[in-house]
Write a structure and sequence with these properties.
CATH topology: Folate-binding fold
Order of helices and strands: EEEHEEEH
InterPro entries: SoxD, SoxD_sf
Number of helices: 2
Number of strands: 6
Protein name: Sarcosine oxidase subunit delta
Pfam family, one: SoxD
GO molecular function: sarcosine oxidase activity
Organism: Tropicimonas isoalkanivorans
Structural class: alpha+beta
């Protein structure tokens, strides 16, 4: 079972208390963008085997959105952080690199 710690209220919650929100750090297509860019924003997502950054909502708790870094194969969680963060914090990246030295970072 997936267990994540909400960075807002500090509660350790299992997946039954959470709502998945898809890939984190997706760059939005703004006004004036091409049809191709808007289509890519709507439909193109990474689906890696390994380290992935995701959006989650503490649905049955404080209700806030947050981000998590985890391994999609082993379900290992590297950490969670607030949704307003535009890039993974250094401590999350360090935790990933400590356990996955071959990881090359986000594309």
């Amino acid at each position: 079972m997936l267990t994540l710690k909400c960075p807002y209220c500090g509660i350790l919650c299992d997946e039954t208390e959470l709502a998945a929100g898809g890939e984190a750090h997706v760059k939005r297509a703004g006004p004036g963008s091409s049809d191709e860019a808007f289509e890519a924003y709507l439909f193109d997502r990474e689906n890696p085997m390994g380290v992935h950054f995701e959006r989650w909502r503490h649905a049955h708790g404080c209700g806030k959105w947050f981000l998590a870094a985890r391994d999609t194969v082993t379900m290992e969680v590297f950490g969670t952080y607030k949704a307003q963060t535009t890039e993974p914090p250094e401590e999350i990246v360090a935790a990933i690199r400590a356990r996955r030295p071959e990881w090359e970072g986000r594309a």
